[in-house]
Amino acid sequence: MTMFSLSSISKRLFSHKLHSIYLTGFLLLSIGGYLPSAYSYALFSSYGIDRATIELFFVYCFVASLFVGTFVASLADRFGRRLACLSCSFFYGLYHVACHFPSKQSLIIGHIFRGIGDALYATAFEAWLMQEHKQRNLNDQHLEYTLNNANIYLNIATIGTGFLAQLLAKSYGYIAPFTVGVGFFMITFIFIVCHWSENYGREKSHMHASFISAMKILRADTRILLCGLCNALFSASSYIWLIEWAPTLEAATNLTISKPLPLGYIYSGYLSSRLFGACMSGPLLKRFRPQMLLSILYLIAALALSIPIIMPDEQIIVLFGFVVFQICIGTFWPAIALLRSEYIPNELRSTLMNYLRVPQLLLMLIVLLGHFSLSTVFTLCVSMLFVAMFIMLLLRKL
C-alpha cells in the first residue's frame, strides 16, 4: 500500500470522525436552544407581560449581541473556537435559568446572556469546523457534505423538539421546555470538552490587530461586504418573523385552526417545512450557483411574507405563507454558508462574520424599537428581502 493511499485512508477516516463529532455537538446545543422557542411568547405572556415589553426583551438581546457578543465572539480567532462554543452553551444555559423567574429584571438579564450566546452560535461553530478542515487539508466536497447534513439533521431534530415542547408544556407548564433545555446545554458542554480539539485563527496576533485586519479585508473585497449584507437582511427578517409569528396567527380571526393554537405542533410543522427546504438545497446547489439560488429564494420569501400584509385575518392562508417562508429558510442556510466559504478568509472568519452581523442587529433594533403594527413589521421584512435580492443580483456580476 502506497503512502498516498495511506494518507487518503487517514483523511477519509478523520473526515467521518469530524463529521460525527461536529454534528453531535452542534445538534445537542441547537436542540436545547430550539426546545422552548414555540413557548417563549406564551411564557412571558403568562407572567403578565405585554407584547411591547416582550419585544423590549429582544431589544436587550440584540443590543447585547451587537456590542458585547460581537466583541466576545471575535476573540474566538485568537483564544480558540472550541472555547467560544463552550461559552455559547454556558450563556444559553444562563438564559434558560433566568426565564424561570417571572420578574422583568431577571428576564432582561437573561436576554442579555442570550444575546451573547447568539453571537457565539452564529460564528464559532462554523469557524471551528472550517479551521479543522483547513488544518487537515480536507476537500471542499466533504465540507459541503457536512454543512448540508448539519442543516438537514438540525431540522429533523428540531421537528421532534416541537412535539416534545408541546407535551412538556401541556403536562408541566410553559416553563418545562426551558428546564429541559438546561439539561441539553450541560450535555453539550461535557461532550465538547471531551471530544473537540481546540483551534485558532490568528492565535499570536494582538486583539486590535485582528480587528484592523478584518476591516482592511472588508474594504478591499466588496464581495464580502455584499454577501454579509444579503445575509444580514435575510437573517433580520427571519428573526423578526420568529418573534411575531405567534401574535400574528392569534390576531387572525377568520379560517381559524383551533383555540388555543397548538403552538408546539405548528412550530414542528414549520421545522418540517424547513427540513424540506434543506433537503432541496443539495440538488439545487448542484444545478445553480449559490448567488442565483439565493436571488430566487429572496423573491419567494418576500412573496410569502406579503400574505399577512394582504390577508392578515385569514389564519390558514397566513400560516401557508409562513410555511413557504420556512422552506426558503431551510434552503438558504446551506447556500449562504457555501457562499461565505468562497469569500471569507478562514484566519479571520469569526471576526469578519461578527462584523457582518452588525447590520442585521441594527435592522432588528429599528423594527422592534419602533413598536410598529404587525402589518408594518411585515412590510419592512418584505422590503429587506427585496433589497437582498437586488444586492445578490449585483454580487453575481462581480
UniProtKB/TrEMBL annotation:
Superkingdom of origin: Eukaryota
GO MF annotation, one: molybdate ion transmembrane transporter activity
Keywords, in A-Z order: Membrane, Transmembrane, Transmembrane helix
Gene Ontology CC annotations of this record: membrane
InterPro entries referenced in this protein's UniProt entry, alphabetically: MFS_trans_sf (IPR036259), MOT2/MFSD5 (IPR008509)
Keyword Cell membrane: no
Protein name per Swiss-Prot or TrEMBL: Uncharacterized protein
Organism: Adineta ricciae
